[in-house]
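To whoever is on call:

I kicked off a structure prediction for a single chain this morning and the downstream step that reads the tokens threw a length-mismatch warning. I double-checked the sequence; it's 186 residues and nothing unusual in it as far as I can see. Pasting both halves so you can look.
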Amino acid sequence: MQNPSSEENTQKRSLPTGVVTIVFAIVLGFLALLAWGLNNAQKGPIQVGKSVPPFTLTSFSGDVYDTAELQGKVIVVNFWASWCKPCEQEAAEMEQAWKEYQPTGEVIFLGVDYVDTETEALAYLDKFNITYPNGPDLRTKISQLFRIRGVPETYIIDKEGKLAGVKIGPYTSIGEIKMMIDPLLD
């Protein structure tokens, strides 16, 4: 038989059922949120052949480029940074390709400056005489959309808004760039 004082101690230590239920619900919610975050992190980049969600890039000069409005053109999205040495390796080829495609109006290049300062980014663009639209990836929204792993990375979006090609690392020649774009033109 239990001692009466022991029975009183047991009753004093137990929590009301409502409090236990609320704590349990909070813990379950936290675990669900954690699972969702881990699942998103493991998805990897957008897959070739899948539609690319629309996004906007505001250039350093203040122009806004909305990919939803650019549908019907091939869009070349190049992630770069001023501190990235491999980005420097492809800078001249990217600019040369832009100058070749620009007059046709069928292709637009968008440079997305990743985790950089505006001063350094503008100096980089000036150093390599880059004239195609470039802008900062504010709050890394665009890089999170593509789930990039580093820079440089380039994503080619076809005229229907689907991912047509991905290049991880720098392009080594203008021919390599053209091999990814030319098949997408009429």
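Update from on-call: the warning came from a stale cache, not from the record. Cleared it. Sanity check on the structure: The helical segments are 4-13, 17-42, 85-101, 118-127, 141-146, 174-181.
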